[in-house]
């Protein structure tokens, strides 16, 4: 990993050996002026305590300068728990194992699984019984293609033990498996979103899930912006409820990077979750100097401007919002760039016919699946002027080679800028997968496991999955 602001990894590791394991988790910003250190690798087996060190170092630096952190409440960390707290205990661990799978149910990017390993290993090495829960995708009820079964071999490989899998999330069969669980063993529950009660944050469902365990660890940063039963609801029934190492590391890094970014500060927003992310743009206009839009996001903006978009992805109920966002950007002097050309397809398939057209000339029956070469050039020129970039959402359907060029070009540009010292933050399951695919993940400043979560943090919103955790002890006066 090339480094910009951080000390070499070996040095970090040596210093970390003497760092406090029990440093409190911050729910919001670190001290103003504290430059974020380069994110540490998610390598399985990496000492999870390294994560704590980043925050400790920043706090120490700001204390030395006499600066003051944004007032925040510290949260208790899994690192605060010792073998005395964990030996023989059933620990419910909420991870975000929402990884991309191909049509044959193969994992195409395992970043989120690797990122979850340090917390699980810490618990196992302290004699706990781990009950692992996650969602995968957005199933409507029980849907076999969203089963967590394909994750078991990789989890087992990374943990070095055979992970057991339950066929359900709650109920007598799961209770039996939990009762039979040995110390140092892991039981993976089935996709928690197979129950509609999960997303409704149903208290009865949360209570049943919580009844499987003695304590709760939330390590699902990617889902921390959702107030769901397995992220927020269970904390009402399980004490202690603490933060995992990944959640802690993400917050420590992102708070530092985005509360006081080096400017000019650019955000790139794409992907397909238009309704979840279009609202974020309003707040980004308050924070960013440059906003680049790509992916499925753009067609709602085109349509709002009266352009024809063929059969491209559009959120009809967001047209007014798109219009007002364009006006707001203008009024605020933020450079909001929409692609000037797009690559269109005659069907949503890897072997679709394709052509490059101006954004104003998408014919009926065709859909935009990537940004075009002129747009890539314009975006790259804009990015050349920046010092901090946060990117969430691919520029196109990068899973199909024909429509991957825009995303890959932006990934390469960010890698080039990162090597020159620009802070580059990539967030989101698919965005990270795209950066991994291009082979440039290692040179980025921070690979975040949460797209929507990192954007909401950037907005200054509190993440319900973090707020619900137990408060820790304030060990430093910043
Ligand atoms: N123009 C487009 N039309 C439809 N889907 C798109 C388009 N551009 C990108 N996508 C899809 O967006 C998905 C990722 O979106 P999203 O989940 O919002 O990103 P992330 O996981 O990085 O947060 C990818 O699967 C990609 O194929
Ligand atoms: O993939 C995720 O979010 P992201 O695409 O914003 O990174 C998380 O697993 C949350 O999924 P959700 O947006 O279906 O709640």
Automatic annotation (TrEMBL):
It is found in: Plastid, Chloroplast. Substrate binds at residues 96-98, 135-138. It catalyses: (2R)-3-phosphoglycerate + ATP = (2R)-3-phospho-glyceroyl phosphate + ADP. ATP binds at residues 277, 368, 399, 428-431. (2R)-3-phosphoglycerate binds at residues 112, 193, 226. Its main location: plastid. Its EC number is 2.7.2.3. GO terms for molecular function: ADP binding; ATP binding; metal ion binding; phosphoglycerate kinase activity; protein kinase activity. InterPro entries: Phosphoglycerate_kinase, Phosphoglycerate_kinase_CS, Phosphoglycerate_kinase_N, Phosphoglycerate_kinase_sf. Keywords: ATP-binding, Calvin cycle, Chloroplast, Kinase, Magnesium, Metal-binding, Nucleotide-binding, Plastid, Transferase, Transit peptide. It comes from the Eukaryota. Pathway: Carbohydrate biosynthesis; Calvin cycle. SUPFAM superfamilies: Phosphoglycerate kinase (SSF53748). Gene3D superfamilies: Phosphoglycerate kinase, N-terminal domain. GO terms for cellular component: chloroplast; cytosol; membrane. Pfam families: PGK. GO terms for biological process: galactolipid biosynthetic process; gluconeogenesis; glycolytic process; reductive pentose-phosphate cycle; thylakoid membrane organization. Monomer. HAMAP family: Phosphoglyc_kinase. Belongs to the phosphoglycerate kinase family. This is Phosphoglycerate kinase. It comes from Triticum aestivum.
């Amino acid at each position: 990993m090339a480094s910009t602001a951080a000390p070499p990894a070996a040095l970090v590791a040596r210093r970390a050996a003497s760092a406090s394991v029990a440093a409190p988790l911050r729910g919001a910003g670190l001290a103003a002026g504290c430059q974020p250190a380069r994110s540490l690798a998610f390598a399985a087996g990496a000492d999870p305590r390294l994560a704590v060190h980043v925050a400790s170092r920043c706090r120490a630096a700001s204390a030395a300068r006499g600066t003051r952190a944004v007032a925040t409440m510290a949260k208790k960390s899994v690192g605060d728990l010792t073998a005395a707290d964990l030996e023989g205990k059933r620990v419910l661990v909420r991870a975000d194992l929402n990884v991309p799978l191909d049509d044959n149910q193969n994992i195409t990017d395992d970043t989120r699984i690797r990122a979850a390993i340090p917390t699980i290993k810490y618990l196992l090495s302290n004699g706990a019984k781990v009950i692992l829960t996650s969602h995968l995708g957005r199933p409507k009820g029980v849907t076999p293609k969203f089963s967590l079964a394909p994750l078991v071999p990789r989890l087992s490989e990374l943990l070095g033990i055979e992970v057991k899998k339950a066929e359900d999330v709650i109920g007598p069969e799961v209770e039996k498996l939990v009762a039979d669980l040995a110390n140092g063993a892991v039981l993976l529950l089935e996709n928690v979103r197979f129950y509609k009660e999960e997303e409704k944050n149903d208290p009865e469902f949360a209570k049943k899930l919580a009844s499987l365990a003695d304590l709760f660890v939330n390590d699902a940063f990617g889902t921390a912006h959702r107030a769901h039963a397995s992220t927020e609801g269970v904390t009402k029934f399980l004490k202690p409820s603490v933060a995992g190492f990944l959640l802690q590391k993400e917050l420590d890094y992102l708070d530092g990077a985005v509360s006081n970014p080096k400017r000019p500060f650019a955000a790139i927003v794409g992907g397909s979750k238009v309704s979840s992310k279009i609202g974020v743009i309003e707040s980004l206009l308050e924070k960013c100097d440059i906003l680049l839009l790509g992916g499925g996001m753009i067609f709602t903006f085109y349509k709002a401007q009266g352009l024809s978009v063929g059969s491209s992805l559009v959120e009809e109920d967001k047209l007014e919002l798109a219009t007002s966002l364009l006006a707001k950007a203008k009024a605020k002097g933020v450079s909001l760039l929409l692609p000037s050309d797009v690559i269109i397809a005659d069907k949503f398939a890897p072997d679709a016919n394709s052509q490059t057209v101006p954004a104003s000339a998408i014919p009926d029956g065709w859909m935009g699946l990537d940004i075009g070469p002129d747009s890539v050039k314009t975006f790259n020129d804009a990015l050349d002027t920046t010092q901090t970039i946060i990117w969430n959402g691919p520029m196109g359907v990068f899973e199909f080679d024909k429509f991957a060029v825009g995303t890959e070009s932006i990934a390469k540009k960010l890698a080039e800028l990162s090597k020159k010292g620009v802070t580059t933050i990539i967030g989101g399951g698919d965005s990270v997968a795209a950066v991994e695919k291009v082979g440039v993940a290692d040179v980025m400043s921070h690979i975040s496991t949460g797209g929507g979560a990192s954007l909401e943090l950037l907005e200054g919103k509190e993440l319900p999955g973090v707020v619900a955790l137990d408060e820790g002890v304030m060990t430093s006066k910043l």
